[in-house]
Every structure is written in structure tokens, then in C-alpha cells.
Amino acid sequence: MHKLGTWLLKGVLRLLSKLPLRVHYALGGCVAWLARDVARYRRKVVDRNLALCFPDKSDQERKAIRRGFYRHFGELVAETVWFGGCRKPERLRRQRLVEIDNPEVVSALFDAAPSVIVLGSHSGNWELTGGYFSYNYTDRPLSFVLENYCVVYRRQSSRKWNVILRENRLAPLQDPDHYEGYIETEDILRYALRHREEKKIYNFITDQRPYIVSHGIAKVDFLGQHTYTMTGAAALARKLGLAVAYLSMRPDRRGHYLMHYTPICQDASQMDVQQIMQQYYTLLGEDIRRQPENYLWTHRRFDLPKNLQTQ
Fold first, then answer.
1. Of 33, 49, 79, 123, whose Cβ has the fewest other Cβ atoms within 10 Å?
2. Buried b (16+ CB within 10 A) or exposed e, 39-78
3. Least confidently predicted of 29-43, 82-96, 148-162, 181-195
């Protein structure tokens, strides 16, 4: 039954993905309305997060941000479904959905360091990372190839969605079945140690709040809130002396994101983990203040885990 359900869902998504992106955006508007006004999907969490982060804004201003966020949420769904239909890179490249505006920065870090840790967030559309090698439209070539590029992910609780999201994220690759750079978070340390003599770029989504108490937690300031954050990526960078960069993904219009890299350090062994994570959250906070609707507000970013709340 699990396999049957997975194949049925994959079939429906594959058919939908063949539609033009403009059709997906129209459907995404319906998704936004259903999520915001019918299902009221996590409305209380969204409102609480916005109230905490923007206390200086009026209720009307926060409602405008909320409305913009749900519109963005619908577009995320639309783009992600469409993206899964990009068998080989050509369709994705023609659409020019994402563009790297400073590829020379990550190339320079890669050339000068043993490897690079890229810290991204739930801004823009993080599900589109798998099409990276279609996003350089400049005359500045990248200094690395697909074999150097790794995407670190967290396994879904649903086996069905784990399979579907993996295939979707790797859809634009020429040979996704033989791509070895899609690595689960619990395997990343072993992988990095095993490949420490090879140059890699490790891409992490790292704005999740902690799930359990461990030594891998730091306390940072994020949008005026004291926030606990997981530190695995920064700890790995420090342990191996890797370069670290922040990746922002800003929409400048519907259907076009700009990926922009900001160096955090060339050698993470010269910083402590908390410093790295604070710099990351400072840069992320600046991006969010510029475009608050561009962040995933439906998750509890600022609550402590229950086993931390009395500490």
C-alpha cells in the first residue's frame, strides 16, 4: 500500500509538473487563499511570530506581511511542483527561475579553503537548490563541478514524502540516480570525515530550532529574540577548518530569485561556533527585515523545547 500510494502521488505530481509555470502560479494563488482563509493553516503561529519579531509595526502592517507571506507560500508550492518536471537542466535554465548574482564569491572560498559550508534558511524557495548548476548566467565560470556539490537534508517522517522530495530536488540533474551528494543530516559527519581530502561544498538549511537538549545548541539573537539554534554545520566547519558562507535567496519579482553569497569566515577554526551562528542569524535577520514575507513563518522559531524551558 505504501508503494502504491507513493506511485499514485508521484504520477499526479508528474502530470501537474508539465503545466507551464504561469498556470502553477494561478493555482498557487488558490493554495494561498485556502491556507490563509479556509484552513487557516498555522495562522496563530504566523501571527505570534510576526508579533514577536515586529513589535514596532501596527496590526495592519503585520496583517499585510501575513497576507504577503501566504501569497509567497502558494508560490513555493507552485514552483516546487513545477520544478519536479525539469527532467534534465534545459527546461529549468530556459525559465531562469533562479540566478546566482555573485558566483565568484563561492568559487573564491572553494579555491582557498579545504571545503566550504554554506548556511541557508527557509527563505526564498530552498527546495530549488538541486538545480544549482543551471543558475549561473554570468560569464564567470564556477570553479567546482557537481561531484564537489552536496545537499544536506533532514529525513521526512513520511517515507512516501521522503522518496518524492528526493526525486523532486534532484530532478534537473543529468544523472540523478548516480548522484552521491544528497546526504542525510545524521550521516554528514561520517561523510565529511571520509571525504576530508576532497574539496566539497556542503549546503545546509540551518534555521531550525533544536529538537532535544544537547551540546550542539547555541543561544543567539534573532530578530530581537533570544533563540536556541542547532549548530551541527558550524561545528563541522570549525572541526575541519572549513570556510563558511551565508546564502540568501531573495525574489526580485515573481518567478525570479537571486542567490547571493556572503562570506562569514575563510577558516572556521579561528571562530567559535556561537560566533559563526550569530553572524549567520544577523545576516538572515537583515534579509527578513528587507522582505519579511519571504520567510517561512509557519514554524515555531522562538519557543524553547520543553526540556529547555525551565533552564
1. 33
2. eebbeeebebbbeebbeeeeeeebeebbeebbbbbbbbbb
3. 148-162
Rg of the chain taking only CA atoms, in angstroms: 19
Computed over every residue of the chain, the mean pLDDT equals 91
Q: What number of residues does the chain have?
A: 311
Q: 22-28: which pairs have CB atoms within 8 A and are 24 or more residues apart?
A: 24/78, 24/79, 24/81, 24/82, 25/75, 25/78, 25/254, 25/255, 27/78, 28/74, 28/75, 28/76, 28/77, 28/78, 28/79
Query: Which residue type occupies 205?
Result: I
- Is the pLDDT reported for residue 11 higher than 60? yes
Q: In this model, does residue 99 exceed pLDDT 70?
A: yes
What is the CB-side half-sphere exposure of residue 225 using CA atoms within 13 A?
A: 20
**Distance between CA atoms of 57 and 50, rounded to whole angstroms?**
9
Strand-pair partners of 246 = 119, 262
What is the C-alpha separation between 110 and 194, in angstroms, rounded? Answer: 18
Residue 311 has a pLDDT of 43
* Bridge partner list, 225: 222
- C-alpha dihedral over 88, 76, 284, 40, to 10 degrees? -160
In terms of Cα–Cα distance, which of 250, 249, 251, 259 is closest to 138?
Answer: 259
Indicate whether 174 pLDDT > 70.
yes
197 in Cβ contact with 115 (< 8 Å): no
Residue 308, pLDDT > 50, answer no
The strand ranges marked E within 188-224 are 201-205, 217-222
Helix (H) or strand (E) holding 6: helix 2-17
How many C-beta atoms lie closer than 10 Å to residue 195's C-beta?
16
Tell me the three cell numbers of residue 32.
494561498
Beta bridge partners of 205: 120
pTM above 0.90, yes or no: yes
